[in-house]
Amino acid sequence: MLKYIFKRILLFIPTLFMISLLTFFLSTNVPGDPVEQMLNSNSEMGSSAKAQAAEKAYIDKRKQLGLDLPTFYFSITNSATPKDLYTIPKKFHRENLSKLIEQYGNWKQINAYYLSLKKLEESLGSVTSDSVNADALIAMKSDAQQLYIEPEDKTINLLFKDMLAQLHVADNLKVLEADIVNSSKLYADVTRHATTYKKFIPAIQWYGTKNQYHQWITKFMVGDFGISYQDEKPVKTVIWEAIRWTVLLSIISILLTYLIAIPLGIVSAANKGGIKDQTISTTLFILYSLPSFWVATLLIMFFGGGDFFNFFPSFGVPQATENMSFFTKFTNYVWHLTLPIICYTYGGLAFISRQMRGAMVNSLSQDYVRTARAKGLDEEKVLWKHAIKNSLLPIITLFANVFPLAISGAVALELIFSIPGMGKTAYEALVARNYPVVYTIVMFSAILTLVGYLVADILYAVVDPRISYNKK
Questions:
Q1: Distance between CA 435 and CA 431 in Å, rounded?
Q2: Final residue of a domain: which of 162, 188, 221?
Q3: What is the reported pTM?
Q4: Is the pLDDT of residue 7 over 90?
Q5: Is the residue at 28 inside a domain?
Q6: Bridge partners of 78?
Q7: d(C-alpha 148, C-alpha 282), whole Å
Q8: Could you list the residue range(s) of the whole structural domain that residue 117 is in?
Q9: 155-164 long-range CB contacts below 8 Å, 24 or more apart?
């Protein structure tokens, strides 16, 4: 058994490696710029001093997040793409430069054009806005921003024409003419000196261990999951604040579900086709068909201070203080968590009890059960001593899914009851594009899924001695 467990744990390594790769590359290719999201930066140009300050803040935050490094240990590109394209700070700028490289393949000219746009941006920021040139200056800054992210030849030329047309509005705008003309000429060089053949020459760029993935996975292994984009808290703090409520509710719900469903399944199997079986099955199927969010709303309306009774709080979690006695804390927890636990629990009763019933019906038809009955054993002993062991195998298979579910939470229920658990945290992180939190939850779910299957395999051998992992 120990040898088998060791082999399974070794298999975790390549599995988790592939999951981490998929998770990481999803996080690096999602829409949006996390740095701009954290800084809440304005895309419009301000004065030259403000633009420089914003640029420095952007670069510093990007370095803090480790986004100033190459993505992976290596990249497979073409000879047209430079090795150090990742050093361009703005994500949208890099994406547009990649599109230009794909169209024209001449990085030298493209880079000169990009640098000219930076100079043009600086010149625009140095022009003083007044009542005469305000509208024209705003339009020119908007055009300049569009040039950073525009790969289409026709649109780029129209933007340059529009900027040149705005120069005649005020005399102090004419100082920008040289920079606009220079950028326009450099873009013309990009289109005139295209080397598209370079796109078809493959190239492998090596970066070593100083890359984003290596930094991310090594920090993850020591418990550093990064920084939340929403409040800049460490992700592990955000996860810890949420996971304790989800785990508490999940453990209580799972225990209640199994403690209730397994006996009900056994009773149904023992009375197959009888009144008890029909009553239990009908009741559980009715419960199973009721949506949890609808039941939660009814419970709040009837028992949470709605139009009827005010037995339980309708939202929130218990708040314990140091001077509370154990009994007071316990009753406070029961008072707050009764309604959520009911909603968490009732849905699983039908599924697990039907699985248990089916397994028990199959076991009760086996020869060894008929032999036990022929020996004169009590029906209770036949059920609980002989038949139940083989019937537990499907339940153990279902139990393997408990581990990831224990941290995933139930989004709808946590939102309805205002429980700050993992489901609510994951939903809010998705809405806010807070990907470090989302992908940390994904990684933990993957790890717990693997652990769950390993525990299930071990329990198979414990329940059924015929299952041995030491034999071929």
A1: 10
A2: 221
A3: 0.76
A4: no
A5: no
A6: 202
A7: 64
A8: 34-221
A9: 156/187, 157/184, 160/184, 160/187
